[in-house]
Amino acid sequence: MASAAEQLAASLNFGAFAKAEELKKRLWFTLGALIVYRLGTYIPLPGIDPHVLSEMFQQGSTGILGMFDVLAGGALSRMTIFALTIMPYISASIIIQLGTALSPKLEALKKEGPTGRKVLNQYTRYFTVILAIAQAYGVAVGLEAASGSRGALVLDPGLFFRVTTVLTLTGGTLFLMWLGEQIQQRGIGNGISLIIMAGIVAELPRALVGTLELGRTGALSTIFILFLLVMVVAVIAFVVFMERAQRRLLVQYPKRQHGNRVFGGEASHLPLKINAAGVIPPIFASSLLLMPTTFAQFSGGQNMPDWLVWISTALGHGRPAYVILYMALIIFFAFFYTSIQFNPVETADNLKKNGGFIPGIRPGQRTAEYIDYVLTRLTVIGSLYLCVVCLLPEILISQYSVPFYFGGTSILIIVSVTMDTVAQIQSHLIAHQYEGLIKKARLKGSRK
Fold first, then answer.
1. Residues 147, 134 contacting (CB under 8 angstroms)
2. Which of 254, 303, 291, 248 is closest to 270 using CA atoms?
3. What is the mean pLDDT of the segment spanning 144-152?
4. Which of 60, 117, 197, 367 is spaced 20 to 30 A from 18 at the CA atom?
């Protein structure tokens, strides 16, 4: 009976999808926008020697360049117009969010509703331009200083190259920001997240082919490759479970009587996610730890102070210092970002204003303390979960020489974005079904 009911529900959903013309238009627009993004990842910057660039990235694939190249879908290793991807916009968004917790003016804008959020979004766009220009100029200077066995990376260095590089990379980032907003308005899902996920997914076939090639040459055994594939499925299932897991706090609303009618008295839940910080902690932790190694690779190990050489050596992949600091930074950023995203005092005040209370807990300060107590323990579990998922690639890379960045940030982004997109598709299907029911009810009413 249960399986038959599930099949019937699935067929009804498929029928609703076939009739949802608006949803199909949104899906086609999203697919077209992502294809445009992928085409842009193959348009190279002018004045770059591709052979020297390939040699440089083969040497620096284990540093911060390799990590961001995974997020960029290979656009950074090919040094294309989308080499910066959407990362300046994400950094600007995070900085503005941090500012709302530190600046009273920004915090007041956040509380103003849609009008305040519109102003904050405009601040984010302005800050994105500033960050993109700064990062593009740094990339231009770094490209001019880079060289390989075949000569200099930049064919004709100078002011003209720097200006064109800054304009091209900044324009590429702003175009992706605009494209993400268009997906948000006219497509389906979170546009910025979908762009990042599309880049990661596009590089997975090449990573899989590289792994199978190592198995063909005997560098990796067949049993280990099968074990690796099974572990990928297990990690994805574990990430899905943890991303959906939440603690629901029971919230009760008292009964109120107005005349002969009784209002309220219902119960609801306050959902608290185990991983409220998302993928921000691994990204920040990886960026900080891989900077010394990247600087060492860019300079080729020449004219470096001894302390930088020692740090870059100690923070290599799989080293004990790297693993310990990586875990510590993930836990720190998980607590830090969760405290910014969720304010127990503000939540307790909102419950008190609406007449809600947690059974057995006094409204106001005691409720805020109880929510903070529960949230702290959930964040401990969530941060340890992030550590387990993100340390898997470090073990595979350092101990077994797996040739791609398995797990970690990539898996978290793919799973979370996929779940969010599927949820939005289901919401559109439900809204379409409700509209159909309302239209049928109106037609029956008019006939009567």
1. no
2. 248
3. 76
4. 197
Evaluate whether residue 412 is within a structural domain. no
Q: Is the pLDDT of residue 43 over 80?
A: yes
CB 178 within 8 A of CB 186: no
353-410 pLDDT tens trace: 878 888 888 888 899 999 999 999 999 999 999 998 888 777 777 776 665 555 577 8
Closest by Cα among 430, 268, 275, 279 to 342: 275
Chain centroid offset of residue 177 CA: 15
Query: Predicted confidence band at 4 (pLDDT cuts at 50, 70, 90)?
Result: very low
Cβ-contact 198, 74 below 8 angstroms: no
Q: Which helix H or strand E contains 249, and what residues bound it?
A: strand 246-252
Given this model, what pLDDT does residue 414 score? 86
User: Domain residues for 66?
Assistant: 15-216
The gap from C-alpha 209 to its chain's centroid, in whole angstroms, comes to 25
Strands 261-264 and 267-273: unpaired
Angstrom CA distances, 380 to 108, 377, 387, stand at 30, 5, 11
Which of 333, 329, 339, 330 has the alpha carbon at shortest distance from 376? 339
Q: How far apart are the C-alpha atoms of 154 and 140, rounded to whole Å?
A: 9
- 240 in the same domain as 227: yes
Number of domains composing the chain: 2
Q: Are residues 260 and 336 in the same domain?
A: yes
Q: Please, what is the end-to-end C-alpha distance for the chain in angstroms?
A: 38
Per-residue confidence (pLDDT) for residue 6, from 0 to 100? 45
One-letter amino acid of 257: Q
pLDDT digits (tens, 9 = 90+) for 257-285: 566 665 556 778 888 899 888 888 887 78
SS (H, E, C) 115-144: HHHHHHHHHHHHHHHHHHHHHHHHHHHHHH
**Of the candidates 137, 136, 142, the residue with the CA atom closest to the CA atom of residue 57:** 142
Query: Which structure tokens are listed for 153?
Result: 């990376």
* Same domain (yes/no): 159, 235: no
Which of these, 144, 135, 164, 117, lies nearest to 72 by C-alpha position?
135
Domain boundary among 200, 216, 232: 216
Indicate if 85 and 166 belong to the same structural domain: yes
Which H helix or E strand runs over 271? strand 267-273
pLDDT score, position 290: 67
> Token match 């969530």: residue?
382
* pLDDT value of position 230: 87
Q: What is the mean pLDDT of residues 137-143?
A: 83
More confident residue, 448 or 340: 340
Please indicate, yes or no, if residue 363 is contained in any of the structural domains.
yes
Q: Quick one: pLDDT at residue 9?
A: 47
Cα–chain center distance at 257: 47
